[in-house]
Each structure stands twice: as C-alpha cells, then as structure tokens.
What does this fold into?
Amino acid sequence: MKTFHRTTVLPADADRVWEAMQYPATFLYVCRGLLGVPSLAGRSAPLREGDQETGLLTLFHLIPFSRHTIHIAEVDAATRTIRTSEHGGPIRVWRHTLHAEPLTDGRCRYSDTVEFDAGRLTPLVAAAVKVLYRHRHRRWHGLVRRHLRPADDLRRKVR
It folds into this structure.
C-alpha cells in the first residue's frame, strides 16, 4: 500500500470550498484535461454517504482506461471531509480523503490523501498520482479564482 498526500492553500473560505467539494461537477472540473468520468456528467446532486457509482475512466477524455467503482464512505460536514473507497482496472485499492480546513483571512487549506495499491503496477500508478494531483490542485486554484472568491473581491475586480 502506498500513500500520497498533497496540500494547497486556497484563497477562499473553507465553507465555500466544502460546498464545492460535495458536487460531482467539481470533481469533473478539477480532473478535466487528464481524466474523464462520463458516468458523472450531468449529475447535479451532491455526494451522499453510501453513494456508489461504477463507470468508465478515460485518459485525456479519449482513451478508455478502465471501469472504476467509487463508493462514498463518509461525508462529514463538521470536519469538511469526504472519504471514498474505490477500485478498478489495475487499482485494487484506492482510499481518497478530501479535506478543507479554515485558515485566517478567508483562506483555507485543501488537502488530498490517497492510499492505493495496484500490485506490481503501484510504482507506475504512484508516478501518475503525482501528475494527477498536481493538475487537480492547479485546477482548484483556477476554480477559486473564477467562482469561489467572496463577492466583494469580485466587485473590486470589475471596477
């Protein structure tokens, strides 16, 4: 089993980030460009504990990669944490924890922790995980800039 952790400070309130974390559209947005999950497209309901979805993963939205199952193991509003249990293709185990922690001045610390096992392919998957989560965190910053900043910051920018 291998563990990967990545943290970034987002210039947005933790409650706004938490709200966004709960929607499949956010997942699709932060993965766009590298990973596609067509079965989640158009789903507008927030994630709920116990939800499960199985669907095709595509690399670069073109290359079918594997059928992947994601189970929402926990959605904890008190700690702004989501935990999933996933598997599919070469990935035997994929446990993902997403967390938003409030900081000062309307900022928050967003983190992803992934425990995974892909058997003999684990080192290759580990390299892909680094690329994927660097991309996701860059996309999170773009999402915050475009959609999650406080309204007063947006008003100042328009003027």
